[in-house]
Amino acid sequence: MFNNKKVIVVMPAYNAASTLVKTYQEVMAQPFVDHVIIVDDASNDETGRIARGLANATYFRHPVNRGYGGNQKNCYRLALEQGADIVIMVHPDYQYTPLLIGAMVTMIGNGLNHCVLGSRILGGYALRGGMPWYKYVANRLLTFVENILTGAKLSEYHTGYRAFSRRLLESLDLEGNSDDFIFDNQMLCQILWSGTIIGEVSCPTKYFKEASSINFRRSSIYGLGCLWYGLLYRLCRWHLASSRFFPQARRDRLSRPGNN
Question: Rounded distance, CA 21 to CA 160, Å?
Fold first, then answer.
């Protein structure tokens, strides 16, 4: 709890048995965390058995694999149903350190931001943490183009460490987004479309065998999708296109400091 706001951490899990406990323990050791929700996307390892044994955690399992975006949709739905005022997504593969939870909570809980990202690029942590050089180059190029198209100044769009206010999550039409990895980018574009200023904190990361990753083909599809939604965003801003992702009537400026 922070400033009378309930804080829930959500973990979209898939085959996370080897790292789930370590991540969970470090999450629960952080200030302000009230509860953890683990959504298991039909893992075929021991993720479910381990998650059921964790205290102060809600476990939800998909009967079939829904994809990373589909997993997040249920993460946020369940968090809001359980009364969360601040929701933080942490991957249970221990790639992102939970030690930043307190900083992210205070930024949202004090009314500075409705969305905060843990950036691997700020502070130069990506390559030092083991990010492959080709992924780093792709990240930088995509982010450069997306910033031009959206008019934002984010250090990266592709982190999986994110925090949101309840009001922001309730304002987004997340169910209409993809169930695949492009969900992340669609969501950020929708947040920027609303006029919300996105905060960032520098985040150390670790790359190792158990850390989640996607293959080259799916990475390429994701990259092309990022460029497409960035272009669509720009066309809608210029009133040269219309899209359900970027409705003109919903640019309602959530971002003013203190506007909770």
Answer: 19
In order of 109, 179, 198, 225, the CA distances from 189 in angstroms are: 23, 16, 11, 12
What confidence tens digit (pLDDT) does each residue in 150-186 have? 999 999 999 999 999 999 999 999 999 999 999 999 9
CA–CA distance, 6 with 80 (Å, rounded to integer): 10
Fold classified for 7-250: Spore Coat Polysaccharide Biosynthesis Protein SpsA; Chain A (3.90.550)
Alpha-carbon distance 92 to 16, whole Å? 6
Alpha carbon distance 161, 150 (integer Å) = 21
Q: How many CB atoms sit inside 10 A of residue 41's CB?
A: 23
| pTM of the shown model | 0.92
Amino acid at 91: H
Give 176: exposed, middle or buried? Use CB within 10 Å, 0-12, 13-18, 19+.
Answer: exposed
Sheet holding 7-13, edge to edge: 57-61, 35-40, 7-13, 86-89, 162-165, 115-119, 198-202
Q: Above pLDDT 70, what percent of the chain?
A: 93
The residues with which 119 forms a beta bridge, in sequence order, are 202
Across 50-193, the runs of DSSP E, i.e. the strands, are 57-61, 86-89, 115-119, 162-165
Could you tell me if 203 and 105 are in contact, meaning their C-beta atoms sit under 8 angstroms apart?
A: no
